[in-house]
Amino acid sequence: MPKSSPDTWEPCLNRNGPWGIALLLALTALVGCQHSWFGNQDNRPYNILLILADDLGAIGLSCYWEEAPATPHLDRLASQGVRFETCYATPVCTPSRVMLLTGQYGFRTGYFSFLRSKYTPDFGTPQRDVGSKLTFADVLKEEGYATALAGKWQLTGNGPDLIRDCGFDEYRIWRGQHHLFETKSEIKSHMARGSQDKGRYWGPEILENGAALSTEPMDYGPDLFTDFLIDFMRRNRKRPFLAYYPMVLPHDPWEPVPDPTAPHGWKPAGYPEHIQYMDQLVGRLVQALDDLELRERTLVIFTGDNGMPKNQLVEPAVRVPLIVSCPGTIPRGEVSRALTDLSDLFPTLADFAQAEVPGDHVVDGVSLGPTLRNPHWPHRQWIFSFLADQRMVRDSQWLLDAEGRLFDCREPAAPFEYPEVTASTDADVQEGRRRLEKLLERLPAPEDAASS
Known about the structure:
- The chain is of the alpha/beta class and 452 residues long.
- It has two domains: 6-388, Alkaline Phosphatase, subunit A, CATH 3.40.720.10; 395-451.
- It is 31% helix and 18% strand.
- The chain contains 15 helices and 16 strands.
- The strands form three sheets. A ten-stranded mixed sheet has the order 6-5-4-3-7-1-10-11-2-12, with helices on both faces.
- α3 (72-79) crosses α10 (271-291).
- It is globular.
- The two termini are 27 Å apart.
């Protein structure tokens, strides 16, 4: 079982109350029947398809918000599993991706912001090398999983072996500005070329297993990444596999997308159109699992790396979709109010893979396994997000933002519109603030993390 951080568990459990005692008893029972909630008929570990959308908040999908673009494939996926109402990422790509890979918050990894920010580890330091960190792919590969990645990488480290150092046997990535740079001067040189780079969409610049992949002007990058993962799943259908898809959609630039109903045609450019094409690709992947007769033995997870507006530590920018489906194992059509963040996915994948995490790797997340079996399971009592030297934390009642404002998030009137109660003198409000402020003492900002 993954080793959960004391920073995660201790604030979650009120051992003095009846709810805390009941939860402790239940957890004790679960530890005694380790992994039993993940058994399948032949006891083979589950395959895993993990999809990470690029720049997609929770209200970007029609199963979350009726005014969103129609996303029928993701709506169907939600109807076949559990949809989490409240999942936190960070408001920019890089720290979310590192948190997802490692199960750790920024104060452990050093990644508090985007790559070229001062709030990331210095060039040339071991901490900056993502390949030196333990990832969920490392853990699953150790258990005999075939592992592959396709799409957008956007992480730095030590040269051309970086992705394999992160535990992936195979990859096909958009090269662009996210090539596997080794030095700061190489990044500057590449950035200076600017317009000479091919984009991530039409006629993309792609790196596959260390070699440039030849593309034509009418080749569409997201299709090529999806094709790669479908072929990977087909080739490895007789063994457990991990297919990680950090998509390039629906990130800008918002270019025209292919029209599935008209060969060689396309639809107009726009963010809604990118969301809808992303939805089509998710449908293709799930259909491929059906065609391979692997759907009921594959855990499918869909989430996002940040919402909008980016680079602002506010809930619309950190609240992302989270849909988890595995027919026959996970209940269908459930909506969970359990609070979760991206750090929870590392221990969740380890649980489904029946994998042990090395004891020296502290995991800030908590496995969603019990909650996926029973969507009314309370899971954890708080979630956390951060950007640079700012931090935000919430529980089921209160949200404490980066400016010290307190919001009552029990009954939102509309998406993200919580009543502000900062000036309230009510005892329960003041107790809620004290509880969250005390929690932040365990979740340090960059300067505090460096000195600890």
